[in-house]
């Protein structure tokens, strides 16, 4: 094992009596090491970007959240998450919290889901909040 490590080290430092290392081999090794470091860095930073979701009930296989839409949701407070099909929905059930979201935080929640199949996502109902939306 130590002979192999010494052999690799000697190739990089060119301390042995062998022919000098191939420049392409050296560049390929450096690019591979750099790519692995970059991948790990992006993986680490990606995990930090995803914010935690509010709590919510666990859905059942076929009927989903239907049994939990009644009185059981009081356990999770005024804001909770539900999966409706493959769409994640955050439900706000408190009038005061809904008022704060609609009035005070309206710019943050003004965007709509883009449906790219219909008009490349530029339909009037699905245009994101911005300069084009203000022109309407």
From TrEMBL:
It comes from Acer saccharum (Sugar maple). This is Cytochrome P450. The lineage of its organism: Eukaryota, Viridiplantae, Streptophyta, Embryophyta, Tracheophyta. SUPFAM superfamilies: Cytochrome P450. GO terms for molecular function: heme binding; iron ion binding; monooxygenase activity; oxidoreductase activity, acting on paired donors, with incorporation or reduction of molecular oxygen. Keywords: Membrane, Transmembrane, Transmembrane helix. InterPro entries: Cyt_P450, Cyt_P450_sf. The keyword Transcription regulation does not apply. It holds the Pfam family p450. The chain crosses the membrane at residues 26-43.
């Amino acid at each position: 094992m130590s002979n192999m490590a010494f052999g690799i080290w000697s190739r990089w430092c060119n301390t042995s009596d062998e022919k000098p290392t191939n420049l392409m081999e050296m560049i390929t090794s450096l690019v591979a090491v750099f790519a692995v470091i970059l991948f790990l860095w992006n993986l680490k930073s990606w995990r930090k970007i995803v914010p935690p979701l509010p709590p919510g009930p666990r859905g059942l296989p076929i009927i989903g959240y239907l049994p939990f839409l009644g009185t059981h949701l009081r356990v999770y407070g005024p804001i909770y998450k539900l999966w409706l099909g493959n769409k994640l929905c955050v439900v706000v059930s408190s009038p005061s919290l809904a008022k704060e979201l609609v009035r005070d935080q309206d710019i943050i929640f003004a965007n709509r889901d883009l449906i790219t199949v219909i008009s490349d996502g530029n339909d009037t109902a699905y245009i994101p909040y911005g300069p084009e939306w203000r022109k309407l």
